[in-house]
Design a protein that fits this description.
The protein has 234 residues and is mostly helical. The chain contains 12 helices and no strands.
Amino acid sequence: MKNREFESRLTVKQKRVFGAVMVLILIVFTALLCIFVGNPMIKFVSEPARFRDWVEESGIWGEIIFVAMVFFQVVVAIIPGEPLEIGAGYAFGAFKGTLLTVIGITLGSIAIYYLVKYIGIRLVEIFFPIQKIKELKFLRDTKKFKFIIFFVFFLPGTPKDLLSYFIGLTDLKVGYWIFLASLVRLPSVITSTLGGSALGEQKYKAAVIVFAVALILSGIGYLIYTILCRKHNK
């Protein structure tokens, strides 16, 4: 009997060691991706004229690669998404830039959902400290959960990368999650691509207005989000 208990405990220990090793590998892999892929990618997109020339030369492959870039940015949450969205508006125009960005965001969000379901909170902790995750306790109100998460995703300025990873820890169905990731967060994407498009058309006054409005709305959205966190976490 004791031998069986020892074997059982050993198995649990082995599983924990295996899990810790997997998390370590993920951390190292993510860091390498950020250094060798993420930084050059953002630097390239941050040179709008060069990026647009590359898009025009690449044709359909430029669009496919851009969607893959957005997918990568969403999954590796520590890479900023704003330069990509602005670059999309500059290179593709407001409509196509928004469409391609949303496709990449949606695919990346679906990947995160299933990765977190499979690996669990250890994956979330690679990108976000446990304290940030605990601050999202207000989303655990099961009666109002769908409404609150809809509202938070619709608001500009909220930490959508953190929320995307948190969703996998909840019981939210993947269908509703796709709806949130693709359509509900659309306003925050449109403001960036519109600004980028205005820059590409050399409408600098319009670009300044769009970015100023986006900044104000993001500030308001973040303030509302902070108040929600403090109110419910008391």
